[in-house]
Specification:
By secondary structure, the protein is mostly helical. It is built from four helices and no strands. It has a single domain, classed as Four Helix Bundle (Hemerythrin (Met), subunit A) (Up-down Bundle). Helix 1 runs antiparallel to helix 2, helix 1 packs antiparallel against helix 4 and helix 3 runs antiparallel to helix 4.
């Protein structure tokens, strides 16, 4: 398996684990189970690091085209939004419904954007 393909499979596995632990946390309610919550956060952080390293290394080999760069930036912004809304949702205080809705919608956008970015990285000449 090529390095790019293994990173794509790794990113997919990370997304699956993040989704599963996120659903589990959501169903368990507040206060969140510390172990589940920390696994969810750490796997999300590892996924972001994998994504950033993959983009950086791909850019070192050949400069990223504009479409791949835009997709990568969008993915990064989705992840930042997820971390921000997740931090707000984890507070003991009640949060606005918009924050929770964003935290429930952004994972799908981040997964789609990540897949698009990796597709563009893999499909480039």
């Amino acid at each position: 398996m090529s390095t790019n393909l293994s990173r794509i499979v790794g990113a997919g596995a990370f997304c699956l684990v993040i989704f599963l632990f996120g659903f589990w946390l959501s169903r368990s309610g507040k206060p969140y189970n510390g172990i589940l919550f920390n696994v969810h956060k750490l796997v999300a952080l590892a996924a972001v690091i994998l994504f950033a390293v993959t983009l950086y290394r791909a850019n070192q080999v050949t400069t990223l085209n504009a479409m791949t760069l835009v997709a990568g930036i969008a993915t990064g912004l989705f992840f930042v939004g997820l971390f921000a809304t997740g931090a707000l949702a984890s507070l003991d205080k009640p949060v606005p419904a918009l924050v929770l809705r964003l935290h429930h919608a952004l994972p799908y956008l981040a997964a789609l954007s990540t897949a698009t970015t990796f597709y563009l990285l893999h499909a480039r000449p």
